[in-house]
Amino acid sequence: MVPVDFAMLALAGITTYLLRTEILTAFRPVLFEFNLPFEKYIFLALGVAGFFVVVYAISGLYNIGGPRNILEEFFKVVIASSASIMTIIVYIFLRQELFDSRFLVLGAWFFSIIFVSLGRLIVRQVQKSLVSKLDYGIHKVLVIGNDDISFKIINGMNDNHSLGYRVVKQLVNPEVSEVKLAIGNPGIDEVILANPNYPQDKVVEIVDFCHENHLVFKFVPNIYQTLTANASAEAFAGVPLIELRRTALDGWGSVVKRLVDVFASALGLIILSPLFLIIAFAIKWETAGPVFVRLERVSRNKRFQLLKFRSMINNADKYKEMLKEMNERSDGPLFKMRFDPRVTRIGRFIRRTRIDELPQLWNVLRGEISLVGPRPHEPSEIDKYQKHHRKVLALKAGATGLAQISGSSDLPFEKEVALDTLYIEKWSLSQDIKIIIRTAIKMFRDHSAV
């Protein structure tokens, strides 16, 4: 990645220079061709490219790890490129000298993001092709375990060869000698301990063996290790105390999340106001009743009125009891019925396109829910929650979330709870941004909601 990034950064600099000196001259004449000829500029561009690569390294763009999400990598490139160009601008300012062209600075920033992202995408596709077709650069994996988790890992690797993993052996509850034997026959690069109840003394031996033989060791955490995923330590009166947090969203994270909610919801309400007027007119034109429906929901154990465009006939809740025998969700407390007779024609349209949920931006602005979080449920549904379901109430509910983009109402209830729990434990701002983008894509592509 380092030489590819360097080449792309140099190409971005050359493109910026040629664009300014060869194409944009009709709009603005070139005044720096004698002070900064191309021969002098190319050395400057190569030096700046080297500086960008150093900042990329500091930003973690060259960390060795598993498959990186494309969107996450793109945002890292944007942030690192912006930091690099800002450093250069500050340097020019402190030297109290005028640079020959502001366009070269801004153009280098823009094209560096585009070219580096494109280069990394090409490398990713080439890598996937080499791995899946030629087995080039694969990791041979030994999986220890024989439960559902073990087979989930094995099936995930077997179903997607482009990830670069090949399961060459599976052992149920091996002795350390069996693991040592596997390193030579059939040969392994990684050991994955999927059995969370494997004896601790054997685990230590296997870890030592892997370190001695330069093998990657990974494991599935047991319940105690999972509980400490968001732990913090402090000393009180000379005594160490460990706090087990419910979520990584704490301190400044919650402040940033709220600022994003306020800004994004206010901007969304302003931009979408013409669409709101059109939908409001269509709803009133078809049926009598209010434009909006206020549904009682629960967020962090507090009840509030969730705002949505009315997609059903007026007072539809009165008929819910009559339809309860037609509920298609038998795996939990939720109610779902495809082709619900209470849904109007315009309601069916705004449900398919998810437009009916856009007024929730008002709830976000008021702070009742967040843009991203667990799905808000009805009080009667929450009354039926089992103990492990209530963990999703630890965080403010969201207008969209990991569960919504992973299958929406078609998800089994336990899977929905598992996804919401995962989101709570592994919260990050970058994950929120990815969920929002995937939600927007889903609104345009997925019209399965009825």
Beta content: 5-15%
The major pleated sheet works out as: 4 strands, parallel
Shape: globular
Q: Let me know the average pLDDT.
A: 78
Query: How many β-strand stretches?
Result: 10
**Structural class by SSE content:** alpha/beta
**What percent of the residues sit in helical stretches (DSSP H or I)?**
40-55%
Q: Using only CA atoms, what is the Rg?
A: 28 Å
Whole-Å distance between the termini?
A: 46 Å
Note the total helix count: 16
Uncertain spans, ≥5 residues at pLDDT below 50?
none
- Going across the major beta sheet, what is the strand order? 2-1-3-4
Total domain count: 3
Listing every helix as H and every strand as E from the N terminus to the C terminus, the arrangement reads HHHHEHEHEHEHEEHEEHHHEHEHHH
